[in-house]
Amino acid sequence: MNMLYAAPPRVDPWRRVGDWLFRHRRHIQLAQWTVVSLYLALLLVPLFLPLPDRTATVWNNLTRFAQLMFWGIWWPFVILGTALVGRMWCGLLCPEGALSEFASRHGRGGAIPKWIQWSGWPTAAFAITTIYGQMTSVYQYPKPAALILGGSTVAAMAVGYAYGRNKRVWCRYLCPVGGVFALMAKLAPLHFRSDPVLWRLSQERGDKPGAVDCAPLVPLRTMRGASDCHMCGRCSGFRSAISLARRSPNHEIIHVAGTVPKPAETILILAGLLGLAVGAFHWSASPWFVSAKQALGGFLIDIGWFAPLEQALPWWILTNYPGRNDVLTIADGALLLAYILASAIALGAILSLSVALSVRCLGQWDARRFHHMAQTLIPLAGAGLFLGLSAMTVTQLHSDGIVIPFVAELRAGFLLLATIWSAYLGWRVGALYTESPGRRMASMVGLSFAWGIAAGSWILFFWIW
Ligand code: SF4
């Protein structure tokens, strides 16, 4: 007898990963509490130890080890990881998110007030913590690290306790790095896809699957991007319509990011990551900062006002470690603040002009297009942030005798790839708004100023200064 055999349908392996996350929530919680324990130990124990001396290394000194973990490994590689696998860090490992959700589970479950839902919080919180971190030398000393990270954790728990039930209101609306992660996740080649057709079919069948406990409050049915999703897997398989799936890393920026203009994200990209963050990395190496400091010093001496040159402030306002010969005076602090803010304003304005020029070249002025085109700079913005943060990793390891080979070549390659990626996205987004090749080319010329400035600021930092 001739038997016809139908092979079972192949299940996408990524779908299985999503389903695995769904089934293993307990294991995920165990991992989260392990990270919480490590996080608290690395944050708190160094507070009770003397500051590391010159012989201390990451291998024999917990404070140095904690510095490397927080600023050399965690921060840069979570940024990179988010661009590779979405916000899995947030959903599966982040100690702050886990603690906030825990507090929410046992809290008073209040309604989320309107002021918390203001879309500008992630951008504002990123700017404030970046500036404050520089003022207090958060990367070098345990006390400001405990104040900034610990303060953020306490606030996350308080918000969790006050609002929502089993939710992560803090992560969704207020986390200082949530805005950066939301941008980076747009580049991820993985996402939880919600299929509207399968969803409708499930409704028509009369499925009653219950509710999904989505902690960051993502609207599951209309979810189109990966920005808000924490990749926790709790919705995997819901209504047979949601699954972990591959996608093009260009997809979200080209096809989703332009549908709803997000001015707060535009500010975060142009003035935040490509402006303020650049100033925060630059100032300590900048010859312009040194010149400005000398000019300010000379001016204050000329007018006989010495106090700003001599007076320091408590460590929780401005770096103040006389034993380490590391003290910022009031004049230093004011200049630092001015340098970072001037970077944000100047770079943000020039980049905005460049993006505006490219949009105008595509046709009539349109604010929605402007916000969409700004999103094409996300690869460059993310690459710059990663390079700036990983410079600390390289320096910290180098001081302990670990030399990473070909660092300059790797940096140059990374920057070049990010520039090409941003250019490609600009080209594809331009095609959505005009069919004229001439207009698209002109738009690219407009955008090229932005690429030059974004890449140039890191060339200055790594190769010229
Ligand atoms: S949409 Fe919500 S429940 Fe689904 S994976 Fe993302 S964060 Fe988890």
From TrEMBL:
GO molecular function, one term: 4 iron, 4 sulfur cluster binding
Membrane-spanning intervals of the chain: 30-49, 69-94, 115-133, 145-163, 170-192, 266-283, 295-317, 337-357, 377-398, 410-429, 441-464
Protein origin, superkingdom: Bacteria
Pfam family membership, one: Fer4_5
Domain 4Fe-4S ferredoxin-type: 69-108, 166-188
Record keywords: 4Fe-4S, Electron transport, Iron, Iron-sulfur, Membrane, Metal-binding, Transmembrane, Transmembrane helix, Transport
GO cellular component, one term: plasma membrane
Stated name of the protein: 4Fe-4S ferredoxin-type domain-containing protein
Source organism: Mycoplana azooxidifex
